Amino acid sequence: MTNPTPSTSCDPVTLEIVKGALRSMQAEMEAVLGRTAMSAFIKEKKDFFVALFDAEGKLVLGSSLPAFGDIMTPIFKRFAPDTMQPGDLYWYNDCYGSDGAVSHSPDQVFAAPVFAEGRLSAFSQSWAHFNDIGGMRPGSLSPDATDIFQEGIIIPPIRLMRGGRWNDEALRIFLRNSRFPDQSKGDVRASVAAVRLGERRMIELFERFGRVRVLDALAQSMDETCRFVRTRLATTFKPGTYRFTELLDTDGHGNGPFRIRLKLDAMADRLVLDARETDDQARGPVNFIMNADVPKMMLGQYLLSDNPGVLTNHGALQALDEVLTRPGSLLKPNFPAPLGQRGITLIRVLTACQGLVNVATGGNGMASSAVYVIYYLRGRDPRTDDTFLLTDGIAVGYGARSFADGIDAVYLVANENYPAEFLDMEYPVRLRRYGIFRDSGGPGRWRGGCGVVRELEVLAKETMLSNRIDGVDNPPWGVNGGRAGRPGRCVLNPDTPQERVLPPLADGTIVRAGDVIRLETGGGGGWGHPFDREAELVRADVLGGFVSPESAREDYGVVLVGEECEIDETATAKLRAKRPPTKAFHRHDYHDVLT
Amino acid sequence: MSEESAVAIDIGGTFTDIVLFDRRRGRIHNAKVPTTPADPSAGFMAGIDAALGAGGLPASSIRQVLHGTTVATNLILESKGVAAALLTTAGFKHVLEIGRHDIPRKANMYSWVKPKRPVPPQRVFEIAGRLDPAGNEIEKLDEAAVRDAARRIRALGVNAVAICFLHSYADARHERRACELVLAEHPQALVSISSEVLPVFREYERSMVTILNVYVMPAVSSYVAKLEERLQARNVAAPLLMMKSSGGVTGAATIRREPVQTALSGPAAGVVGAMFVGEASGHGNLISIDIGGTSADICLIRAGDPGVTVEGRVGDWPMPLPMIDINTIGAGGGSIAALAPSGGLTVGPRSAGAIPGPVAYGRGGTEPTVTDAHLALGHLTPYLLNGSMKLDRPAAVAAIEQKIGRPLGLDTMAAARGILSVVDNNMVGAIRVVSVERGHDPRDFALVPFGGAGPLHGGALARLLGIRTIIVPPAPGVLSALGLLVAQLKSDYSRTCLQRPLDYDLMRIGRVFAEMEEEAVQWLVREGVPPEGRVLLRQASLRYIHQGFELAVPWPDGGVTRDALDRCMAAFHRRHEQLYTFAQEDTPVEIVNLRLTAIGRLERPTLPRIAAGRGLDGARIGEQRVESASGVAPWPIYDRDRLGADTDLRGPAIVQQLDATTLVLPGQRGHVDDHGILIVTEEN
User: Fold this and answer.
1) How much is the pTM?
2) Which site from A95, A584, B274, B457 is most exposed, i.e. has the minimal number of CB atoms within 10 Å?
């Protein structure tokens, strides 16, 4: 048998080896960043990601979180690749200047070129959400913001290191603008160490297999991912036009709801996502500069969801050929509109893309998910008399799927919670309750994931609370007969005469020692008719505290009796005989189309 | 002079390996008997008898019985533990369900499903009562609620109870009281409290490890009881010592109380064995790789010290107890080669296991495995275990051709080499995780391949890593049993003792060390270790202020002084730089945990010396055609048992023995030393 493969190209075996090497270098970079970082948001919550790119800035290996835009282009625009040298390191957080490659200012991007055989051959990159970079309030982000300058210092793409030497002056300016400069300094060092490690590992990879062969492996692995995505795409979106409208409640300034209107034109060999009919930009900080790569990656990862063998890379971005946005809209705001709460809009774009999948496939996608919740508490710690900033991300429920329940109590990929013991130790608060929010998951053949209840008592004399919950007015929709998830809320001093329900997106609430903050977070939508859920599963949910006996009866048609919640088969059969009619989507009521 | 011996038993999926040390004569005897899955204690005892027979020793000679067990491991991995209940602080019923609220970093959010917890929420009981992080009581324990929960647990017929209350790492009083109350209401209950299992903060991880402890407790307890019964019946009065994940052994009484300590018992024994063989051949820097049928366990040993981690995992669960830092990947002789939907060649983690096994075993396997690739290429002879097992090479070749070669457009031998190349590189990736990733250059280490398939891969792995020395143990298949025989008694203690900079409280540090030392000495006394055999090692876990992860560094010998603390800090800066590429001497350092390791020295055997053989020719038992990338060539086959001390050989060669086959590649040379260890090195 002849082997026509020239020596410069990469054989299938070497291809697998290179892919494995990329995965392990990514894991190494993550380990260094997570272990050495200093702010709680990075070290305990783990809000950081690393990636590798080729010399043209094409993604070689990214993360499982589809939230990142085209990371390298903003650097190339300022620094021509042919001016780069070994030992350089580039840095930015400029959302408008990067066309949404990063979409709120706390996210710091660091990237270093990788040279092999004397030529620029790749990039190593890290990304982390910094605790405080200045701005109007501790933590930099506030629902009160009305322009991006209130959300912290803006770093355009700059060169932080040249030939291995730090630009100390630039760093000093940045650190002077942070309320917690020691933590920021530690986080910069951690981020840079991760990038440098990736650079070193890439160089080793090039040395081992030769530059040309590795580059060919990278190209092949992108092709491989692309082929897979395109094949899946063809079976998911038959030629036609699909529309879906998703809602977010408010911008925190009395405006809303806001509509994200997506239209997908699927042609035989071309897919165009048109978001131009989305509402105008908001006064409050829910604007989201939707870099074209973000919806591409959202669809790409969905299409790859049953194939862990291929890499999340540039090939996954081939899910869409073109993404259209309208300047002045919520997804393409004009400078300097505020962006700090764009997480809401990001997740709503993600669920809107699943809406398109559902419309195109007759409901084979995922139901809608709640948006991860966050609150900021700022004040002075009576134990040390130092100022403190608690930025606590809280889990929600995700949408149900055609093969499984929605995920209960999760925040986002990779992001972890603060343990109760960590909170109590580090901040002047006491966590009183942290459990599943019963009945929050949308009923369905597959139940939507449940949100949580997190309740804390404040021990500091006086603190300022900022809170964010979406889906209060417009909870995550269910699909295929599945019902919507239950909305969340933020309450002060619940079940007391002083009880006060806070606006879902608010800042400046003063909370004093002894006050109790309770956050109830929303659940995901259900999938399929709730009467089709096995009674045993409903019983298990009741026993486990996910579903109440009342909901079991009313939503699922399952009658449970006694302390052990035995299934009353006769009564259940009788209830289930009267099967309520359903339509494609559910939010408040059943609808054929969500508008 | 009376006879004295120690016996070690390692129970594998197919065989039970036994190593007996005859202390008076300084001899080691190996035996192998079939594993008896229905009642492993039968094989255990049959093995001891076989070894005693081989050594010509009576059962009464046994002074210690050492054992590694996979009972706990398998129960956890297969979710087959007992129905258990958890008592938790009021408000935290769903502590397990929520976990750390993350979708794992490498998971796809569209397809990921949360793994089912070992205890469902309906068996989690909330108990009012609260401590603050310093251990002060801010709300009294609700004793009535504990009693009520205990009654309900009893009514459910559940006997395994874990108790984990918030901040109990700082003070155990609520947990201890709750334990008493549960036992009063439910005398049959097996109760475990988190402040004993793991007094360290982070409630999800601590709850989980406490639950896993009771989850495996009944099975491990009855297993241990059965072993003791068998030993008693044979009039073996010696203590039964079990291997813990940390690489030390401890008495069966401790294991009954803390069975979760054995979660990595089996792999830990192998690492101890690798260290022993490394030491005998003069090497302290080692990378051990134990390659079995379905997985490979990898460990880096630096200057005779295998790292111990408290951030490991077993299956889906965190395992924050001290365990030897072993990286396990799904790659072994039974790993299946297949084409990914994308067209790439993948090997593992799916395995053909023992049944049906590789295609060549002729037990119904149809998918080509790593073993089939070795057979096709001529690395293995068509019989195993000294001819007792026949292998079907044509079937292996056909499967590789049909499933891999043709679809990829590769000739069959290239496809077979591809399979090995992919699996070798997977292992290399896993070795890098424990070496380069932790700041070590693998070229500074010798490789110790063992397990049935280890020595087949050692040569290729070493080359890929730039390692120049490979140490093949005398009996690679039974190295875990040897590890048990040479292990020491070990117990780890840890206390959270947060000390922030400028205000280090040396008195308190001294007091905490003293408390742990007192506890440790009590344990050593219980295990019957005489004063001269006791070793206490102090460590401190440090981090830069604001960091979330600590690094453990040894506390210098001598007292708790400012100077000792300074030296400890200096060691921390060095370690941080080594592991993470940078140190931050401008940044204050805080102390988080103080640790103590107690070691009880047992009398260890030395590897016996072997006789000189009758030269290389006397060991040659044939030759075989081997397909390498450079072409087909006949490779000589040597019988390992006939290779005497101080024999040299040159690659290519196949060295065969009962339980393993070693490949010496072209360009490598082998040397059999006085202990029968085969040292393979690169010629240039």
Assistant:
1) 0.89
2) A584
